[in-house]
């Protein structure tokens, strides 16, 4: 081989090796196009910001259609949609400062974007200080408008914290260099910026004015935390506090109405997000100022909300700040609850590596109020302050959401359920819920993040915005809630998932958002929201978060090399999009050991909680997008009905000229018959030519309708308890009294959703059931029913021993007490402690909820009859053995249902012999010949040896019928807790044929069962009068067990 031939061969090999990466680079978005989108985003921001500063500042917001300022509605104080947010303190400027600081790190360009944004940031800080002072108590603290935020405005605590306090803190961190700005050197030599100010080119000396203003604003919110629950009241007046909450310790019984008229009582209902999403801002404020009041108050509010989660781990959307009870009973991931989950995870990130906070109140507050709501509560523990506790809250919250809200039908999405039962309540998604995919990406739940984000991308593609609420079931805007006020949640998630995957698909999704905003929301004075995404009607309001969040996340998406995108530190974005960090100087990073597990409800403890970031999907070599190649890509578009919607978008479209009055100027669209892919900006070349779409997941359901003439067994216990009602919802589940006219809808579940393939009752008539709700039905209702779609199957493994004990009459002091006692005879659970004998009794908890209806009518006064014996009953779960020596249970009549209240003189077996371990040789002959039941203790010898020590006997009705072995085992489930629907131990093994003491094979093997509870059960059995047998049953349909239907 010649040298030239060898060189050519190696060149070819190198080119072939580089080919896959070259193809990916071709398919990915070109850098010059990314730069163009970045510049268009900058232009979009400045079109809104410049118009706000020239038209509306120092008012709160801009009306972009009428080109006027937007202020509080002074004539209608109850206009909370406006007044909750607009506090009359230049809100849009405060919300925009961190965006300006981020734009200040823009790459060099012809428009000098970076230097201009830094100059505008510094001018904005100076303008704010001019209006509201520098936060000091002296003359410099008086601004043109007010001294600090001493304004007569009743505002929402939550909105004021996330927009006002968060915006000021984030801008401060940029100003002092704790958050990065390219080319900006504050020249700090120590932390004392107040005594060593930073001099800016415009002559302004920054000495911490923003931090002091944030402190002033936050102090004015502290009165709201004076509640019985620790959760803040929803609103506070920045000047007067909370005189309108009459039950607060700070209520001063004064009226803010100058006419002295009495206003209606202020509502105390807040939302879970509003009460629990204050920790990030207040923690950073406390760490920067050394004042612990804010951090402790916010954390207490968080844990107060978390402690009220239901038994299945869910949180409600609305909660009463005074009473602490849920309002409405809805649970979801969107409006009213969204940022609580966000702050659980992000507080863990923010606190990671830092010492526990100093909780000592400073002896001197330099200025402002010294109110400390923490003084009326027990101090928070170290665990409550630790980052690990917040991570645990996130893990358990996410697990409960995945269990009860997550639906894989058609395409993964989240539904709204009842907070206590998990039963479906509504099948809509809202635009606020779009944040959750981004949160999942931060948490490392990447696949769930990607699949749920697809749904919102398809929804945006359909409407060129996200409607406030959209019905998954009906495929339309829900209830006319079709507005989009410029919300950032969808682009926020797009940004976070792109950072986690580097998949160019998300750049095209961001381009779609930018193009649609420019096409639909541009006005000559700024950017409007959409009053209706279907018609394109504009709303005359530019919300502050449009510049503070939407523009910010779009910019960071298109600036992959931004220093914030490369910052290796535990910083977070607040729910208002403001970056926050605890500087190292305020608490050195250190490695923390794991904190002990949180006490309280731990509904879902899993060893597979995600504790690290997974490897993102690899990018295919030919298309460059793993997301575009997903086999479920079109499942989302199918669920959104995107294939039924005409595609009005052309291959390309231009943005309107910002200086033109024509807000609809675009290139002529090239309409297609419908949408074949999404986002509509995605090049078709990025779709795999040989892509395969997986089958859409649909539930296999079965519906059973019972005729209305089904005969109900007379005397059913449920008839007595329910007073004729067919259904009653109890703490254990839905109890069915009669099948007359009922309609059961069942859904088939397979692993991993269930241990094996089963049916689950999904709804009874129009009543939906939660995923873990049980259906309780008396065996009396199923007696004699023979239907292949619904029939009773006897359980061959587990039975219940019914224990009857006699209640000894009590000697009372007066005849009246005797009469009262006789007027209320007890027909209920035995005095035996069922939990102590090895397993909870199904009836015990069920009966406790409805036991009052079982009592007889009050007796009338008259001659006192002779007292009748009074009995109580308890059920003891027992398990049958396996092996060669196992014998069938005796064929005795089923013990009656104790809930019927029937007085039974004796159950099947009344003669009981107690044999200890029965390992010391042959038992007395009378043990088998004169007793119905022999009770033994487990241990000492094998089960077969115990039975071999029972003497021979002739079977008859008065001889031995059953052997009960009492085990000391407490073999619960993996969590160490009892399964209320089963036993907690394995089946005993009789590994050889039963024999008599003489070694001869027993002609009539003896039936045996084993119970748990050890000494407590053994002692309890010694006090029973008689024992009966109740067999267990389950229901099958079409050969499969109905898993959540319990036969009582």
Automatic annotation (TrEMBL):
The cofactors required by this protein are: Ca(2+)
Q: Polar residues: which segments have biased composition?
A: 651-667
InterPro entries recorded = 6hp_glycosidase-like_sf, EDEM1/2/3, Glyco_hydro_47, Seven-hairpin_glycosidases
Cellular component terms per the entry's GO annotation = endoplasmic reticulum quality control compartment; membrane
Which positions in this protein are listed as binding Ca(2+)? Answer: 575
Which residue positions are annotated as catalytic? 159 (proton donor), 338, 468 (proton donor), 489
Q: What class of enzyme is it?
A: hydrolase
The answer to whether UniProt assigns keyword Metal-binding to this entry is: yes
Q: Which molecular function term from Gene Ontology is one that the record holds?
A: mannosyl-oligosaccharide 1,2-alpha-mannosidase activity
Signal peptide residues are 1-28
* Location of the region described as Disordered in the Swiss-Prot/TrEMBL record: 651-680
- Stated EC number for the protein is 3.2.1.-
Entry keyword annotation includes Endoplasmic reticulum: yes
SUPFAM superfamilies linked: Seven-hairpin glycosidases (SSF48225)
Question: What keywords are assigned to this protein?
Answer: Calcium, Endoplasmic reticulum, Glycoprotein, Glycosidase, Hydrolase, Metal-binding, Signal
Protein location = Endoplasmic reticulum
Which GO biological process entries does UniProt record here? carbohydrate metabolic process; endoplasmic reticulum mannose trimming; ERAD pathway
Where does the protein principally reside?
endoplasmic reticulum
- Pfam families hit by this protein: Glyco_hydro_47
Coiled-coil spans in chain = none
Write out the similarity annotation: Belongs to the glycosyl hydrolase 47 family.
This chain belongs to the protein called alpha-1,2-Mannosidase
């Amino acid at each position: 081989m010649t040298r030239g031939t060898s060189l050519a061969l190696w060149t070819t090999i190198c080119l072939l090796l580089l080919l896959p990466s070259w193809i990916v680079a071709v398919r990915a978005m070109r850098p010059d196009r990314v730069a163009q989108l970045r510049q268009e985003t900058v232009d979009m921001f400045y079109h809104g910001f410049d118009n706000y500063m020239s038209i509306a500042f120092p008012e709160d917001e801009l009306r972009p259609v009428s080109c006027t300022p937007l202020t509080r509605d002074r004539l209608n104080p109850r206009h909370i949609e406006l007044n909750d947010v607009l506090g009359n303190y230049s809100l849009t400027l405060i919300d925009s400062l961190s965006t300006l600081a981020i734009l200040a790190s823009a790459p060099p360009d012809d428009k000098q974007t970076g230097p201009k944004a830094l100059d505008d940031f510094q001018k904005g800080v100076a303008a704010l200080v001019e209006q509201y002072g520098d936060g000091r108590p002296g003359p410099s603290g008086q601004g043109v408008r007010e001294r600090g935020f001493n304004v007569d405005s009743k505002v929402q605590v939550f909105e004021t914290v996330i927009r006002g306090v968060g915006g000021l803190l984030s801008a401060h961190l940029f100003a002092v260099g704790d958050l990065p700005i390219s080319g900006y050197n504050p020249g700090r030599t120590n932390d004392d910026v107040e005594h060593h100010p930073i001099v800016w080119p415009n002559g302004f000396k920054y000495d911490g004015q923003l931090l002091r203003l944030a402190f002033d604003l936050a102090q004015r919110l502290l009165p709201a935390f004076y509640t019985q629950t620790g959760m803040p009241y929803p609103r506070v007046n920045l000047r007067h506090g909370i005189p309108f909450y009459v039950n607060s310790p700070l209520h001063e019984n004064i009226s803010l109405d100058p006419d002295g008229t009495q206003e209606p009582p202020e509502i105390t209902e807040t939302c879970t997000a509003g009460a629990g999403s204050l920790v990030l801002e207040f923690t950073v404020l406390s760490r920067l100022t050394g004042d612990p009041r804010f951090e402790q108050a916010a954390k207490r509010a968080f844990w107060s909300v978390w402690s009220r989660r239901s038994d299945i781990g869910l949180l409600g959307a609305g909660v009463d700040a005074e009473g602490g009870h849920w309002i409405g009973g809805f649970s979801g991931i969107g409006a009213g609850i969204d940022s609580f989950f966000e702050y659980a995870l992000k507080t863990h990130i923010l606190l990671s590596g830092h010492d526990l906070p100093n909780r000592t109140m400073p002896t001197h507050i330099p200025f402002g109020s010294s109110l400390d709501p923490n003084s009326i509560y027990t101090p928070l523990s170290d665990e409550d302050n630790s980052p690990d506790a917040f991570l645990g809250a996130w893990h358990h919250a996410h697990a409960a959401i995945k269990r009860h809200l997550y639906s894989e039908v058609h395409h993964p999405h989240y539904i709204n359920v009842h907070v206590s039962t998990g039963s479906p309540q509504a099948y809509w998604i809202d635009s606020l819920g779009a944040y959750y995919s981004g949160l999942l990406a931060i948490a490392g739940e990447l696949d769930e993040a990607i699949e749920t984000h697809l749904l919102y991308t398809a929804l945006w593609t359909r409407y060129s915005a996200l409607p406030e609420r959209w019905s998954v079931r009906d495929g339309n805007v829900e209830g006319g809630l079709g507005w989009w006020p410029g919300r950032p949640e969808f682009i926020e998630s797009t940004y976070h998932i792109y950072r986690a995957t580097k998949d160019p698909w998300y750049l095209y999704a961001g381009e779609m958002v930018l193009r649609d905003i420019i096409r639909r929301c541009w006005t000559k004075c700024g950017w409007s929201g959409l009053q209706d995404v279907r018609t394109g009607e504009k709303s005359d309001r530019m919300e502050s978060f449009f510049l503070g969040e939407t523009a910010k996340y779009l910019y960071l998406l298109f600036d992959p090399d931004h220093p914030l995108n490369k910052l290796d530190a535990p910083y977070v974005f607040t729910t208002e999009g403001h970056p926050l960090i605890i500087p190292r100087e305020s608490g050195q990073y250190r490695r923390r050991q794991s904190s002990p597990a949180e006490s309280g409800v731990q509904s879902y403890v899993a060893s597979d909680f995600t504790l690290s970031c997974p490897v993102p999907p690899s990018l295919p070599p030919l298309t460059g997008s793993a997301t575009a190649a997903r086999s479920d890509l079109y499942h989302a578009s199918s669920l959104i009905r995107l294939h039924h919607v005409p595609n009005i978008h052309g291959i390309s479209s231009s943005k309107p000229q910002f200086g033109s009055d024509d807000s609809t100027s675009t290139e002529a669209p090239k309409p297609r018959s419908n949408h074949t892919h999404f986002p509509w900006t995605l090049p078709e070349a990025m779709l795999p030519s040989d892509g395969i779409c997986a089958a859409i997941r649909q539930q296999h359901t079965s519906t059973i309708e019972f005729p209305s003439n089904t005969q109900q067994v007379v005397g059913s216990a449920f008839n007595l308890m329910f007073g004729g009602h067919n259904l009653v919802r109890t703490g254990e589940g839905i109890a069915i009294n009669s099948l007359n006219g009922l309609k059961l809808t069942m859904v088939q579940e397979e692993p991993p959703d269930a241990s094996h393939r089963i049916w689950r009752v999904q709804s009874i008539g129009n009543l939906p059931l939660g995923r873990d709700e049980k259906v309780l039905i008396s065996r009396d209702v199923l007696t004699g029913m023979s239907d292949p779609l619904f029939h009773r199957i006897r359980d061959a493994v587990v039975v219940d021993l019914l224990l009857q004990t006699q209640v000894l009459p009590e000697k009372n002091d007066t005849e009246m007490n005797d009469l009262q006692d006789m007027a209320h005879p007890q027909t209920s659970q035995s005095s035996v402690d069922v939990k102590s004998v090895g397993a909870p009794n199904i009836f015990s908890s069920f009966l406790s909820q409805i036991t009052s209806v079982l009592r007889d009518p009050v007796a009338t006064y008259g001659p006192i009859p002779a007292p009748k014996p009074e009995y109580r009953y308890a059920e003891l779960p027992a398990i049958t053995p396996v092996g060669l020596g196992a014998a069938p249970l005796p064929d005795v009549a089923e013990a009656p249902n104790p809930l019927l209240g029937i007085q039974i003189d004796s159950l099947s077996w009344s003669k009981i012999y107690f044999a200890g371990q029965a390992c010391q040789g042959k038992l007395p002959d009378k043990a088998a010949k004169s007793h119905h039941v022999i009770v033994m203790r487990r241990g000492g010898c094998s089960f077969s040896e115990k039975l071999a020590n029972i003497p021979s006997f002739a079977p008859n009705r008065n001889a031995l019928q059953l052997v009960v072995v009492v085990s000391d085992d407490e073999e619960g489930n993996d969590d160490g807790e009892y399964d209320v629907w089963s036993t907690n131990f394995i089946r005993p093994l009789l590994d050889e044929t039963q024999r008599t003491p003489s070694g001869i094979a027993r002609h009539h093997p003896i039936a045996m069962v084993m119970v748990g509870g050890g000494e407590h059960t053994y002692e309890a059995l010694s006090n029973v009068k008689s024992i009966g047998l109740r067999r267990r049953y389950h229901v099958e349909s079409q050969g499969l067990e109905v898993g959540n239907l319990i036969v009582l």
